[in-house]
Amino acid sequence: QAFFCLLLCIPWGSSCPRSCRCTERAGAKAVLCSSQHLQEIPKDIPRDAVLLKLDANSITRIPSNAFRHLSHLREIDLSGNAIEHIDRAAFRGVAAGLRSLDLSGNRIRSIPKEALLALRAKLRLANNPWHCGCALQEVLGEARLDPDSVRGITCHTAPRHEYVGKPLLQALDSGANFCSVPRRSTDVAMLLTMFGWFAMLAAYVICYVRHNRERSRGHREHPRALPGTRGRAE
């Protein structure tokens, strides 16, 4: 952290995003775009940037491949924005080398698990309006969370009202398993589907049997009428 702090003090002269300030020390470059009213991630960030600070802006989304060309990035700070949506491929290209990712203080309710699959960075996710469901539970099981920010992950909404307002870890420690709810829903849906197919098959069989009975009855009655018809003709 002390090394990254030193980056903030030394300017460098190569290309720098219009709303940002850029510094360098020992070949490591920092791009500082804090509090610049940005609504999206700048597209002209230098490829050799190591530290990227985008905190305290108005960014609402992290699109796919947002940092793909920044293979040297080690730290991204996106705290204090208005991020609501994170694409599945948001961190493609930087996931393996990233050491720190700060997403605290945004409007994130859920993160797709695929966005974090290859991510080795320490994650800060506190102070977001999380929906405590199976997706978030799976993210916590696979991600490397910053220990200092874990207790700030609070359930803003949840399948059961008793968990609302509680830290997610507290809910999980009390025995909550949010992934059991979708599984039960899936089982019910499968049962309903099977019942629907069974009902259709039963209806088809009933119609088929009735149709055959009517045909058999018609064949039995038709020969009886023939002699009477011949008598009237004579």
TrEMBL record:
Matching Gene3D superfamilies: Ribonuclease Inhibitor (3.80.10.10)
Signal peptide: 1-22
Gene Ontology CC terms: membrane
Xref: SMART domains: LRR_TYP, LRRNT
Principal localisation: membrane
Keywords, sorted A to Z: Leucine-rich repeat, Membrane, Repeat, Signal, Transmembrane, Transmembrane helix
Domain LRRNT as annotated: residue spans: 15-51
Source organism: Agelaius phoeniceus
GO biological process: axonogenesis; positive regulation of synapse assembly
The encoding gene: Lrrc3
Protein name: LRRC3 protein
Family per similarity comment: Belongs to the LRRC3 family.
Short name of any one Pfam family annotated for the protein: LRRNT
Transmembrane intervals: 188-209
SUPFAM superfamilies: L domain-like
Compartments (UniProt record): Membrane
Record's bilayer topology term: Single-pass type I membrane protein
InterPro entries tied to this protein: Leu-rich_rpt, Leu-rich_rpt_typical-subtyp, LRR_dom_sf, LRRNT
